[in-house]
Amino acid sequence: MYHLKSRTPMGQLNSFRKDPLAFLERGLDTGEDVVRFRLANKRVTLIMDPDLIKQVLVVKEDAFQRFKPYKELAPLLGQGLLLSEKPLHKQQRKIVQPSFTPRHILTYGEEMRRKTIDSLRGWGKKEKRLLSDDFMSLTLEIIASTMFGADVLDGKEQVGRSLEEAMELITKRVRSFFKAPKFIKTKENQQFQKAIDTLDEVIMKIILNRKKTGNRSNDLLDTLLYSQDSEGHRMSDRQLRDEVMTIFLAGHETTATALTWTMYLLLTHPESYLKLQAEVDELCREEVPTMEEIKEMTFMRDVFLESMRLYPPAWLINRMPIENIQVGDVGLRTGETIMISPYLMHRHPAYFDNPEKFIPARFKQGKLLNVPDFVYFPFGGGSRICVGKHFAMTESMILLGALIKNFHFTLSDIEYIPEKFPLVTLRMKDGLLVHSERRF
């Protein structure tokens, strides 16, 4: 175990706030599996041993709860699946999980294809595009359509702006030691509330439209509306809103972020780009790949998984012990902060040769060989593993295949080196600006 020392009252807080990824990499550079430091008055334990990570996320998960500062997300996500604790979390996950089974995803695949076709037909023959925004827009349309039977075409730009503003303000509050209570009408608090009000308006319109028509549909919204607990009670309006908001936002933000990093890596590794293009051209008979075709696109899967190794959207997982507990030979105190970083583990030199390099060949048929569990875990683990994991993989491969099939891309600036922007997800700070040209 290594202790990062600090003689200031704020401990390592300023260093962490300035550049969280660089700060955490200092922990990796110590060569130790457990690193302790202080963020102001809070003791933090950074764990980088896969066995200990498994203990926290799986074996002894009932002894931990979510990181309290992430309650800053509560005005946005409420007690939805991302923030709720047991037993509510277990109950809600049981309701949501069936909508993400392979059988359901098979039906969603056709809607994903339809939305992608409609979107790409609006692109020009040759133009400059901010591809990161395109991904955000298209994944937003897809999650709204597949999960909630809704069309958000008219309001998607406003939703995108509100989401981005809310995420930045939440991140700032999470990392701040001193922050104004939400009831004080500071400029930032008012901006935050305005963003939430905008998103609420979209969400409630979707819910109320379905209730008004009374139409039944084989989608997640229908499941949420008509599910009942053991006593026959349906979900409250507030809980319904929270679950819809959580799936609506988390269901497109993470996928769009992962796709943006994937395209950047392909554009800076032309040999992989050309290999992927050859695979898509060989297997994809139409303008957008089918569900059967993406099953055969093994190199595309390896590319996407390797991209999430280098740039996992969920770059940091935090837990807090609800009791004093021993994990391996590490003693953890009630209420201290436990940090687990997929970003660090995915780049751990003990498990990866040339960990900073993009090498899709690390994966074979979608599997990473010769590494223990919880070295590579872009979707998290335990009972909180991402409920939409297979949905996200399917959507990503359909979108990526469609882009590679129909367009040739180059970076707008061939020397562009993106800045990592670790908000709630690991974004690309200024997005991905590209030149696109239709191939056919």
TrEMBL record:
Keywords assigned: Heme, Iron, Metal-binding, Monooxygenase, Oxidoreductase
InterPro entries from the UniProt entry: Cyt_P450, Cyt_P450_CS, Cyt_P450_E_grp-I, Cyt_P450_sf, Cytochrome_P450_Monoox
Q: Which SUPFAM superfamilies match?
A: Cytochrome P450 (SSF48264)
Give the superkingdom in one word.
Bacteria
Q: Does the keyword Iron apply?
A: yes
**Where, in this chain's numbering, is heme bound?**
C386
- Could you identify this protein by its name? Cytochrome P450
**Cofactor(s) for this UniProt protein:** heme
Quote any Pfam family the record assigns: p450
**Which family is annotated?**
Belongs to the cytochrome P450 family.
Molecular function (GO) terms for this protein are:
heme binding; iron ion binding; monooxygenase activity; oxidoreductase activity, acting on paired donors, with incorporation or reduction of molecular oxygen
Its taxonomic placement starts with: Bacteria, Bacillati, Bacillota, Bacilli, Bacillales
